[in-house]
Design brief:
There is one protein chain. By secondary structure, the chain is an alpha/beta fold. The chain is built from 15 helices and 20 strands. The strands form 5 sheets. A 7-stranded mixed sheet has the order 12-13-14-11-10-16-17, with helices on both faces. Strands 7-6-5-8-9-19 form a 6-stranded mixed sheet, with helices on both faces. α2 packs antiparallel against α4, α3 packs across α4 and α4 packs parallel to α5. The longest helix is centred in the N-terminal third of the chain and has 25 residues.
Length: 466
Amino acid sequence: MSIQSINPATEEVIQTFEVSNEKQINQALEQARAAFQSWRTTTFAERSVHLHTVAHYLRQHKEELARLSTLEMGKPIVEAEGEIDKCAWACDFYADNAERFLADEQIATNASQSYISFLPLGVILAVMPWNYPYWQIFRFAAAALMAGNTIVLKHASNVSLAALAIERIFKESGLPEGIFHTLLIPGAAAEKLIADPRIAAITLTGSDAAGVAVGTASGHALKKAVLELGGSDAFIVLADADLDAAAQTAVRARFQNTGQSCIAAKRFIVVEAVAAAFEQKFAAAAAQLRVGNPLERDTQVGPMPRADLRAELDTLVQASIKMGARVLLGGKPLEGKGFFYAPTILSDVTPEMPVFSSETFGPVAAIIRARDEEHAVQLANDSQFGLSSNLWTQNVAHAQQLARRIEAGGVFINSMTASDPRLPFGGVKRSGFGRELSLFGIREFVNIQTVWVGPAMGPQLQTPTR
């Protein structure tokens, strides 16, 4: 069995890979488990040196690494280079802060001493998607490795070059053998890996359907899982918003990475009083986007990575148009070579339409008119997803109050959503559970261990034992 990497801009096969066989999989798991036993005993200072070296490697090889992802999944080259820089930032961030995040916490009890330790779990299986082929891995891996875990990666099959490059990054940066392994296997093989006793926990970034499959398998195996799943983020524009700034940001928020981001704004909910003006500004700005060869530095929208994904997106668009959505821009695939889809804006969208209820993973924006801000919040929450959201108004204090009513893992006021190593990232509802990044992310894959030292000092509360 083989896996192909295909250039989505030209539809040409870049390289064909043989799938990892049982012997290779077993060897990787054995090495990762053995490496964990020694890696867990290293100091934070030692791990920090390694992670800073990885950050340096990423910056030194930014152009070649970025080119790989552009060739494999069509990311515009400037954005691909920015992704590498962000991965380096995450490595430096956890190298500098992990020891503080995971320091023992002393707790006052009637013990002579009691405290909480944060200890690594073991080998973590990472099941990752193609849309940010480096960032999705490094935002998890930097924290997991600094905590003392080791990693086995099952990446999306269409970015195998990037997957192998990530393993090479860690090796050439001098990390010990077995700390990070890439396996080239199909998605169906992940369930067997999850059940393997050498795997301690699982992290997945992917669709909600993938989350159900991995969550079910993890539950059967009784293993910890962090699931960062799909999103249909609301971009709420209230009557007092700066419409010029909102419209310009809306273009970036929707069409960055060719609209293929779980935290991209997808549902633009605009109060009726300013809806017409916002639509005009948004469509005019989006019409200026340059679609083309993602290797050219002025390209802003590249191809989608596969023909089937483009077809799925177009099905949602055409069904919504038949139900009454009005096309302001685009609305169809582009002719010629490559899996290109025209930047699209649909107006008069209602909650019954697929572009409202489904995750539109591609360059398609849906505009929904709200009667007022109360209706806007209702529409924002009328979704099976709850990853992030945006709220535009000049009354920031009021926005902070409204944010508490929005059912999402993040609310970005007068800005677009962006992940940041300093802040926790994750969602609610069918957008998954658990958090990545910040202190919360590094504490996902540790054993939170209570240590109680006797003898007891003074009266002791008696509680039943299990």
